[in-house]
Design brief:
Length: 578
């Protein structure tokens, strides 16, 4: 997924200046501004640049995150002169912690360590940063190693598996060099080495939550809660509730009659899908279910680099936002977080009232004033929330609607601090595993990056049709389901005339004959009450609340004639409804 540049909303000036937009136009706009306005814009750009600066070990190599026992490295900004110029001069003092979260003055044994740095700028901004570092065994010369890293096949530019296999040794040699450089010079290397150091033989297959990313997140979250003194502040988030009676509908193989489709509908949908693949040359997997009965679930087309099956995961892109919303719904349902709670109720450095107070609804409805995806390390930055707060003066909560993923990451930081678990662990334990979603992974970002299948996402669709339940499990109540549906944002923010929900939007498909042959201009394919979310990879999840229908499709990209065939595909489904 291509990243967008992050800005801090739109300044209310005589001239509207779009950060990251057309530089020539920006320069022309600046010429019309007063000196005071131009200075404000320049200051905003400097603050944005400062937020990209990082604290790094100062070992002669700013990317070196490993060291020997005896002494911790000095720390400094990666761009110290720029930081001093923009923020002024202020001291950096770090606190160091070992793998048990005990504060220590020196690294005596090899293993995982972390620094937490808190500083205050001359103008009162609080800076919080933290990172994992690794204390390597004495006399271990990583640079003298020459490992090979055998990668799983990466389908780059249509290269097939046979060509990859021919060059496997050369690829492994270079990939090994890349891994070694990461170990020696990057934060990710310190995370990997810490994980390797902590691995133990149990005789069992490691849990899906036992990964370098999740283990590191849990560690830093525990450290963060300790520093903030909130280890025992919040009640535990409970697992989905087991229902003894009135079990909810689950997806199952079914016949057209059971699903409420006319005879022959299955074949008509298959014909459209086959033509869709032949026209676009982009393979995909489709699932169509009504009343829980699945009438179509199969792949169409195949890749040049391997077989496409029902269980082949692909990037679901921004459909991840819907998943994040479903995770958040459990917190809302259990009374741990309210949708309109201010972020500052849970995280330091944020106001809880006034024009700069950001709420969880802001985060999920793209109204924080933020823009972009996975900026400043995203969820992998333990103190991402502080970085965002450092630019709070330029945010305009509730004044603009800018589609972004950063609000979702900020909401993720709230969910983590309340639950005491990495958001990626929560996703696995409270969503994926209970729904038996064995082909779904999410360990990168909350605005995109979920890899999954049509079947797994269709379970989310059925969960929504059931208003929060699936089989014998209730993830959230029907009352909470109503709360997360799209609402008119003007009811909360008078300046914004849009409808948006908690990770959910209306997915109304214009009827191809709208305005013709007596069909109303606003006619849609299927009902008007279809919810879901869009996706940069053109993956689909549409949940028709009136027709009790789930439509899911997983794919890597849209390809040619996507809009044309999407309409044909949905029309084949609508025409088949009884």
């Amino acid at each position: 997924m291509k990243k967008a540049t992050l800005s801090f909303g739109i300044l209310t000036l005589l001239v509207v200046f779009f950060i990251g937009g057309n530089r020539i136009q920006a320069a022309e706009d600046r010429a019309e501004l007063t000196d005071e306005q131009a200075n404000r814009i320049s200051r905003q750009e400097e603050i944005k640049e400062f937020l990209n600066c990082r604290i790094v070990p100062k070992l002669g190599n700013l990317w070196d995150y490993t060291f020997e026992p005896g002494k911790f490295p000095e720390l400094d900004w990666d761009r110290p002169y720029f930081v001093e110029n923009v923020m002024g001069k202020f001291p950096l003092k770090a606190r160091w912690f070992n793998s048990e979260l005990n504060e220590v003055s020196a690294p005596e044994e090899p293993g995982r360590y972390a620094f937490y740095l808190e500083a205050k700028t001359p103008n009162g901004k609080v800076i919080r940063r933290a990172s994992t570092v690794y204390c390597r065994p004495k006399n271990w010369f990583g640079w003298s190693e020459k490992p090979k890293a055998f990668l799983d096949f990466i389908p780059v530019d249509g290269v097939d598996r046979a060509v990859w296999k021919e060059h496997e040794d050369a690829i492994a040699t270079f990939a090994g060099r890349t891994v070694l450089l990461s170990i020696l010079r990057q934060q990710e290397g310190a995370i990997l080495m810490s994980y390797l150091h902590e691995m133990k033989t149990s005789g069992d297959k490691p849990a899906l939550t036992d990964t370098p990313i999740i283990r590191d997140h849990d560690y830093h979250l525990a450290l963060k809660r300790k520093i903030l003194g909130v280890e025992n502040k919040y009640p535990l988030l409970k697992m989905p509730k087991r229902m003894e009676k009135n079990k909810a509908t689950v997806l199952h193989e079914g016949m057209e009659e059971e699903a409420g489709f006319k005879p022959g509908t299955r074949e008509k949908i298959r014909e459209v899908c086959q033509s869709w693949f032949e026209e676009s040359d982009e393979p995909f997997i489709v699932l169509v279910a009504r009343h829980g009965a699945v009438i179509v679930h199969e792949p169409f087309g195949e890749w040049t680099w391997g077989q496409l099956t029902r269980n082949t995961p692909t990037e679901m892109a921004s459909l991840t936002k819907l998943v994040t919303g479903l995770m958040f719904a459990q917190f809302v349902d259990q009374g741990l977080i309210n949708i309109d709670d201010p972020v500052g109720k849970f995280l330091p450095d944020y106001p809880v009232t006034g024009g700069k107070a950001i709420t969880l609804r802001h985060c999920f409805t793209h109204t924080t004033g933020l823009y972009g995806h996975e900026e400043w390390g995203g969820m992998h930055n333990p103190w991402l929330d502080n970085v965002v707060a450092n630019g709070l003066e330029y945010l305009t909560p509730g004044k603009v609607h800018e589609y972004n993923g950063m609000g979702y990451d900020l909401a993720g930081k709230v969910m983590e601090i309340v639950s005491g678990k990495s958001i990626f662990r929560l996703m696995r334990e409270n969503l994926f595993d209970p729904l038996e979603m064995n082909n779904t992974t999410l360990e990168e970002d909350l605005g995109f990056s979920c890899f999954s299948t049509a079947e797994d996402f269709a379970k989310f669709g059925q969960l929504l049709l059931n208003k929060g339940s699936y089989g014998e499990l209730e993830f959230f109540s029907p009352q909470t389901f109503e709360k997360i549906l799209p609402k008119l944002l003007s009811e909360y923010y008078p300046d914004i005339d849009k409808e948006w929900g908690i990770g959910i939007t209306w997915m109304r498909q214009a009827h191809p004959e709208a305005g013709k042959n007596g069909i109303p201009k606003d006619a849609t394919v299927l009902s008007r009450n279809v919810i879901g979310h869009g996706s940069a990879t053109s993956a689909i999840l549409r949940v028709d609340l009136e027709n009790d229908l789930v439509i899911a499709q997983s794919r890597r990209r849209g390809g040619k004639a996507y809009d044309e065939y999407l309409a044909k595909f949905l029309m084949a489904i609508e025409d088949g409804l009884k």
